[in-house]
Amino acid sequence: MGAMRKLRDMGQDLPGKESGSVLVVTLLVVLLLAALTLAFSDETGVELALSETSRNTEQAYLTARSGVQEALALMSAESDKDMDTLRDEWLQNEKVTLPDDFMEGSSLTVRVADESGKFNLNTLVDGNGDVDDLRASQARRLFRALGVAEELLEPLLDWLDRDDIERINGAESKYYSGLDTPFSCANGTLQTLGQLAMIKGYDKGLMTEDGRRVDLTPYVTLYTNGKINVNTAPPEVLQCLGEQLDSAMANAIAVYRRSHDLRTMSDLAKVTGLSADLLSGVSPWVTFKSTTVSVESRGSYRETSRTVRAVVERSGEKATPRLIYWKVD
């Protein structure tokens, strides 16, 4: 009893200021702990959200990669190795689907294209970096078929050739060094079609003479040996093969191949309107098989998407695919 009275007396003896200070310190400690708890909680929430986003992104990538693998598997299963046509199953984009046991919530969109049905821009120059006049003539015919001014070929030739001599309507490093963001002319082959946007006249998109915008992607490539698969090439590309091969003839080929096989030049000769002289002139540039294929696969999982772009070369008797380009966006 005396001890308790002593403690009360001690408490009563504390000055008012000291008692208030203890209370303030206690409150500050409590508030600090609460703030730390909230900060830790927020940080944990952010980490969990980032972790989930990372998982979704990885799953979207795996979905896109699976699309490429499925497309290549379908292509490899093709039994006819002597001819590739738009009627082949592996060129039917809707045929590429995910396996039944793939992760639920994933979706896939795949586009497969025969690059051999396109004109190779890099063949505009030879191995020494000099302009190949025959190929340049073919490119001019392609531009005409697309409604694009032939003059726009000149800055492309300047970009590709090895010299610094500016062609009429062309552009070399002198032009590019004067831009707001200066750079040098490549004087070498294109590595990606995206580089076209750096070239004079192509930087704002290619336009036809009547003001229409043209996407070159369905018509040009960088990856083939230069020969064009007449089974898959658009009519505009077919026209580039020879001066005499006009739009009517190109469309006649496109119609004929829908229901007939084109395996040899003899088969091509059956198309109405194609003369022996014309066929003889275009034969060095014609093939009936696909040697190079591109696959664009867009995989989605929940709210996340990734796109894989791949180009494969088919070689050997079994047309075994070999990867030559891979990009993930």
If you had to describe this structure to a student in words, what would you say it looks like?
This protein is of the alpha/beta class. The chain has 3 domains: 50-116 and 291-328, Pantoate--beta-alanine Ligase, Chain: A,domain 2, CATH 3.30.1300; 120-216, EpsJ-like (Ribonucleotide Reductase Protein R1, domain 1), CATH 1.10.40; 234-284, no CATH class. Helix content is 38%, strand content 16%. The chain has 9 helices and 10 strands. The chain has helices at residues 2-13, 16-76, 133-146, 153-160, 173-176, 235-239, 247-256, 265-268, 276-282, and strands at residues 106-114, 119-120, 206-207, 213-214, 220-221, 228-229, 286-287, 292-301, 304-315, 320-328. The chain has a 4-stranded antiparallel β-sheet. A two-stranded parallel sheet has the order 2-5. Strands 3-4 form a two-stranded antiparallel ribbon. Strand 8 (292-301) and strand 9 (304-315) form a beta hairpin. The longest helix has 61 residues, at 16-76. The radius of gyration is 33 Å and the shape is flat.
Number of domains: 3
Give the rounded overall mean pLDDT: 86
* Helix/strand order: HHEEHHHEEEEHHHHEEEE
Low-confidence stretches: 3-11, 44-50
Portion in strands? 15-25%
Number of helices: 9
Order of strands, main sheet, comes to 1-8-9-10
**Global shape:** flat
| Secondary structure: number of strands | 10
Task: Write down the Rg.
Answer: 33 Å
- Superfamily (CATH H level) name of the largest domain: GSPII I/J protein-like
